[in-house]
Structures are given as C-alpha cells and as structure tokens.
Amino acid sequence: MNSKAWRVAVGGFALESVSFLPVETGIADFEHEARRGQQLIEDLAGTASVGGGFLQVLQDAGAEIVPLVYTDCSAAGHASDESFQRYRDEILDGIAGAGPLDGVLLFLHGAMTTPSRTDPEGDLLQALRERCGFDVPVMVGFDLHANLSPRTAELCDALFGFHFSPHVDMAETGARAARCLLAKLNGTADPQVALVKPPVTLPSIFTATALAPLQDIVADSLALPKKVPGILDASVFCGFAYADTPDLGFSVAVVADGSRELAQQEAERLAWRVWTLREALLHEELVDDLDAGLAKAKRIARANERPVVLLEHADRFNDSTWALQRLIEDADGLAVHCPYLWDAETAGAAVQAGAGARIKVSLGGKSSERAGGPVEAEAEVLWAGHKVFTGTGPMRQGRRIDLGPAALLRLGTVTVSVISVCTSAIDLDALEQFGIDVTAQDIVLLRSKTHFRAVYQPLAAAIVIVDTPDWGTADLAQLPYRHVRPGIFPLDREAAWPGGAGKQQEARRLAAGQGDD
To answer: Nearest 10 degrees: CA dihedral of 374, 379, 382, 387?
Structure first.
C-alpha cells in the first residue's frame, strides 16, 4: 500500500496555561480559533502553523486528510474543565467515527492545565488509547514550552517539539511529525521514543534559543540525526514555568529507528547537558527592575535613531500597566507605542465614540490584582473599528487574525492600540495594521517573552527587560505553586539529579563521549 492511500486524521487542541491567572479559557475562546472539516484544510494550508506542516506533507504525499477539530488559544489562564471535555470528546468522537484510519496527527501544546487537571494532554491521549487502542499510530507535535509527562511518551508513537523560540519552525515541526508517520506507514522506519526530564525550569524570557548555552544544547539536538546512525529526531523542551503541574520543566525527547535503548541513551546525554548548565541557563543578569529599566530605555532611546524595545515580560494577559502608567505620566517627550493592550471595555467605548473623539479611559490592568490597575486618563481616538487581517510575520504567516473591536488611542506622546481579543504583539503587523511606523518610535512597549525577537531584535537599538509583580515574574519563588514536584532548579537551588550517583555517572560518561560541538 503506498502513501497515496493512507487516511490520516488531523487535529489540534492547544493552550499554554498560566495556572495562576484568575480568568479561565472557555469554549467561546477556543471557538474563536476553531477550524473543522474543509475549513480546517483551507484555513491552515500554507500557514506557519503545526497544522500547516501536517497538511503540506500529507498533501504532497497524496494522502487522504480526515479533518477533526483544530484550535489554538496561544497563552491564557486555565482551560475550563468544560472546554477540555468538549474538545477532548470532539477529537475522540471524530477519530472513532472517521471509519478506518491509518494514522493520527495531533498538535497539543503540552502546558495546558484545567482547575482539576495538571496533565490534560496526557489525559486526552490516555482516553484516545482507551477508546481506539494502539493499532493506529498517533504522532504529536508539541510546543517547545511543553511540560511533558512521562506517560506522554508511552502514549504517542513519536513526539516532536519546536526547536526554536521564537517559534519560527512550527510548520516544520508539523512536517517532521507527518514525515515520520508516513515513514512508519510505508515501512521505512520504526520510530521508538524516549523521554527524559532533568529537574530544571526557566522563566520564559530565558528560553530564547539564541541565548547560550541553550543555543548550544539545541544545536546538539539538531545535529543528532546527522551524527548518530539510527536517530530520527530529537527535541529539547524548555517547559513552561507558569503552569502549575508536577511535570514542570525541561524534557528531552529522542526518536530512534527501531531502538528504544538508543533513544534513551541520547536523551539521557542531552538531559545531562541541561542539568550541568542549569546555572548558566538562568540569565538573571538580563532583567532590570522597573525604575532601572525605564531609565535605561529612555537613556538609550535619546542616544539612538532606532527604537528601544522595553519588554514588560511578566505581563501574562497583555494588559499590565506597570510600565505604561509610568510612561504616560512622564515619557520625557519620547514617542512611545504600546501595541495590543487587551481591554475590550475601552476598545468598545472607543469604537462607539469614533475617530477624532476624546474619551475618558480606565485603561488596562483589569485581569488580576497583579496587573497594575487601570490607567485613569483622557485619550484621543485616532482610529476605531473591527480589526481583521491576514498575518505576515514569521509565526503568523497566512493566518487570519481577528482582534475584535479595536482602537488606536493617543495619550500625550504615547500611542496605544487597544484590542478585544487577547493577543501578544510579536511582529510588525501589531504596529503596521494600525498605521504605526516602528522607525518613528523611540520606545516600543512589548509584552512578548521570546517571540518578538525574530522581528524586533534586528531593528531595535536595544532590548530592555523589566520585571514587574505580574504573574509572569522572573522570580519564580514568588509564585504560589501547589503541584510542582520537589527538587526543581531554581525553585530549589540545592536540587539534585534524581536517580542516584550511578545514573549521574552514566550520563556524565555519555556526555563526555559525545562532546560539546
């Protein structure tokens, strides 16, 4: 049977959960992004998404695509238990009712939580296997920030993660999974996966894969299939420190052809590199407090023609006002732009008032008590309406972006785009779709963690990172974890590698034998 006859189901259910946020992600939020049936194929084909990668490989191979449901809510609070049950059941029912299938491709983030579940993705895969068995191969693409549970590797025939953050290789990750599935179906490969979890986690801002030594660890994983016969794929997952789960932290997954032992050996070696470099991975020197960061950003902006990126990374709901309030009060005459501030109430009021109106605003800071509180001010409405466009950036290429009712406001020398659908500004669409010229700005206030770097790092005079008391703080000890297993660095600075000295010595031997290319 050749690949043109294979029937492959395609679906996705993804959310990066900040477990501490008080606002749940419900069915309406997932439905805003949901695609089904032929719409799934039409909307995802050619996009820079995991689903886009699935489809491209399957279409090129002439396989029959069986669309399930595909929804990706990016980063937000817990998924509600109701929404998890809804989309889990839709995926399971879709697979069970699809007729004979040869394979399944899924995109799951790996850092979803719900109020009652710390490993929803594992629960979904467990339910899938209980209903459909292990006869049909299931391969899964995961985000680099997945907190993978050990059972995940047992429930997938193979799993694949983004290699980079910014996630410029989402489509390629989907393609890797699809190519491996077809190789298994065609009998040209027998993928065996191993997963190892070194006890290390990092604040998201330190998971930018251009930062050494993480860059070197990722490069090592990328080189494995070329250097080690029998290795099909390797992924280094950095984990997501803001999802409260026993599986918090790094994971290393290696897929080998026919040899679980080989996969385990190489996963252990890469995991040992993560462990031994844990102190160097924690770039605390890159973060300033708010006062120092604001002063630094203004000083650099005054001395340069290019804009400074001021990164308020701890903002997990795109509405924090800690830096915005200070810049509105005193921008020192500098041109400041804050894209994608999430405030549906203010956006709606601006749309109702219309362009040219002056309105009193209670702007942002509404998601939680840590968001800084609303900015009380008067603003001029420069533009207002419903904002929908097709993404052009490296991570959102070809995707339909619907920000809902939105507005561009001016408050002194500060301009703010206010949106109704919570979305992070990670590319120039966030400015250009509102008529803002990035080169005319002195400071651009962003809330992204790493994804902005793909576009903004080359054009910025500097990136100044400030820490604030919001839920994404770089000081992880400030977060009220309830489920995290003990012994995770840096929550426990005295953490030790689990498994005893023998296991450590073996991992050290493997690391020494492979080298640090």
So the answer is: 20
